[in-house]
Every structure is written in C-alpha cells, then in structure tokens.
Design brief:
Layout lengths: L4 E5 L4 H5 L12 H14 L5 E4 L3 H9 L5 E3 L16 H7 L16 H18 L4 E5 L1 H11 L17 E7 L2 E9 L4
C-alpha cells in the first residue's frame, strides 16, 4: 500500500503558546502562527492530496495559509473537549487536583480519552475509504496524537508519548501492509 496521511497541526495561538487547554474555544492564529502556516505551505508545495480540516478557525486558517484551497470540514477533527478544564494550564489545574493529567484523569464536562479515540478511528475509516490517494488532515495536537496511536494499533493512551508541536507535519503510511508512523513532528524549514 502506498497511501500516506499527512497530519498537520495548526500554527501557534495565544493559548498554545501559554499551554492552556484549547478544545472547542475558537481562537485565531497569532502573527507567528500565520507565518508558520505559510512555511507549512512551502513544505507541502508539489504534494497532491485530498484534504480535511477541523471546523475551528485555527486549523482552517492554517490550511488556507498553507495553500490548500479545497479542504472538507470534518467536525470529528475538532480538538478534545476538555470540559471544565478548557482554557486552563496543567500547572494551574494541579494546584487544585495534584497529579492531574489529561491522559489519565476524569475530564468533568468533557470527553473521555476513549471518546476522542472513537472519533479519531471514524476519521481514519472515512478518509481512507474516500480516496486511494494521499490525505492531509489539518487539526489539533491531542486529536492528531490520538489518531496516530490508533493508526498503528496502539491504545489511545500511548498518544501521550507522541509530542506534537504547532505547525508541524507528521506522516502516517505503510511498510508493506503494516501501518506505521513514517515521520513525526517535523517543522518546515524557515
């Protein structure tokens, strides 16, 4: 099999810079984030793929600024719903709940890790069935990390080991018939 899936995390926002959990809050890119998105476009130049994007503006803006004009919006690519922890940093949350982690603690008013993984699996099923060619997914840090873990058959909790910076490109693919991570967390050259 030769199909590849490009995972593209949106550029910097004020909250990604500060470490605040940003699920469904619709925050725009910073000026630096817009520059990052344009650099992603240079790295993607000449590549042909079908594209999908999260409905949130930071992902759609990254997609557009990187030169991808025709991306389908897929609500399942929305970032993790962090519930009552939305807009808060892990350090801030740990003042009230010692040892709190998005990966292993209850997410009051939000989604469980398994619910996010179920969405990720549905995205993978949908996009791989929709085209035989390469795919680009413009989305967010946690959903993309979980999607990658699901791609290679690991439990979603394994995604905690896959750090993903803003404005990076990762690639999923195959080694013969085995699903693999071919590249991870690559920043485009400046």
């Amino acid at each position: 099999m030769s199909q590849q899936i490009f995972l593209i995390r949106h550029g910097e926002t004020e909250w990604s810079r500060s470490g605040q959990h940003t699920g469904g809050t619709d925050i725009s890119l910073t000026a630096h984030g817009r520059t990052q998105a344009e650099l992603l476009g240079r790295a993607l130049l000449g590549k042909t793929f079908s594209a999908w994007t999260s409905p949130l503006s930071r992902a759609q803006e990254t997609c557009r600024l990187s030169g991808v004009e025709h991306a389908q919006v897929d609500d399942r690519l929305t970032e993790w719903n962090y519930g009552i922890f939305e807009s808060r940093t892990t350090l801030d949350i740990r003042k009230e709940i010692p040892n709190w982690s998005v990966w292993g603690s209850p997410i009051t008013g939000g989604e469980t890790l398994e619910q996010v993984a179920a969405r990720a699996r549905l995205v993978l099923e949908h996009v791989t069935a929709a085209t035989n060619g390469d795919i680009a997914l413009f989305a967010h840090g946690h959903i993309l990390r979980i999607l990658a873990a699901c791609w290679i058959g690991l439990p979603p909790i394994a995604a905690r080991h896959l750090a993903l910076d803003t404005a990076t490109i990762s690639m999923l693919g195959y080694e013969r018939e085995t699903r693999v991570i071919k590249h991870w967390n690559l920043a485009p050259p400046a």
